[in-house]
Specification:
40% helix; 269 residues; alpha/beta
Length: 269
């Protein structure tokens, strides 16, 4: 569910150095050249759009279609990005073919795990790519994202957040699995890509250390709150998650928690 409240945006989390590093690595391997037509799918507040623009030359040549379902995210991105070659478009990944013409590259950072029908969206991306076009995406919500013994952190965090909610008279409904929690394995992603005509697929895994502030910042993002604490009002869920993160870092005496990003670059046949 989209919220127009900028308090619940992805912007704070996207400002962390580790976030820029993993996405800059991916964008650099997407083969973007000056004059290309590029889609930044799920552009959010514009952090990835900036990285794409850096690959488009000086002055930048080509077209960048920055697409997001959230009007508030697009507003933040438009305030951040001042470029004549960027077009901001409100819409979903499922409707991609009706939003853009044929393009050379689609970059889809940190959002594919939120898509209910991943096969449909990957097929839609394939349909808008020119032959030889590239889809570059990443996610840290996949089977294998937990590094080492970090599962202990997530369990403890969940318990702490739940206790915070109970103390405030709220309860979480756990009878439905949320979209953000429907994780696929790397091999399942490979099969979906092959089924949609991607002939070459490269997958790499990168581990980053996330400090407590990063977990507090992701706790402000509306879709993360809705996925972690279904049915809880955003304001209340945000506070419970932030309190839970701080308490967990204190209880377990942590400096940082590792997380693995899956980086995927696929070329359409």
């Amino acid at each position: 569910m989209e919220t127009s409240d900028a308090r619940f945006s992805f912007a704070k989390f996207a400002a962390h150095p580790f976030f820029r590093e993993v996405n800059a690595w991916l964008v650099a391997r997407a083969g973007i050249r000056p004059g290309a037509d590029v889609v930044d799918l799920g552009c959010g507040p514009g952090a990835i759009t900036e990285l794409i623009l850096q690959r488009m030359g000086v002055p930048p040549l080509g077209r960048v279609f920055a697409i997001d379902p959230s009007s508030s995210a697009l507003m933040l991105a438009a305030q951040r990005i001042q470029s004549a070659i960027v077009r901001f478009v409100q819409g979903t990944a499922e409707r991609l073919s009706s939003l853009v013409p044929q393009v050379d590259t689609v970059v889809f950072c940190n959002a594919i795990h939120l898509v209910p029908d991943k096969a449909q969206v990957i097929a839609a991306i394939s349909n808008v790519l020119r032959p030889g076009g590239v889809l570059a995406f990443n996610t840290t919500f996949f089977e294998g994202a937990y590094a080492g013994d970090s599962l202990r952190f997530y369990k403890h965090w969940g318990l702490r957040a739940m206790r915070c909610l109970r103390e405030r008279g709220h309860a979480v409904v756990r009878d439905a699995k949320t979209t953000a929690m429907q994780w696929l394995t790397p091999e399942e992603y490979r099969r979906l890509l092959a089924d949609s005509g991607f002939a070459e697929t490269e997958v790499e895994f990168q581990e980053k250390q996330l400090p407590c502030q990063a977990w507090e910042d992701i706790s402000e993002f509306s879709m993360f709150i809705e996925g972690a604490l279904p049915g809880i009002p955003l304001e209340i869920g945000m506070e419970a998650l932030k309190v839970g993160a701080r308490q967990t870092f204190e209880d377990l005496r942590l400096q940082a928690v590792p997380r693995i990003w899956m980086q995927v670059v696929a070329r359409r046949g």
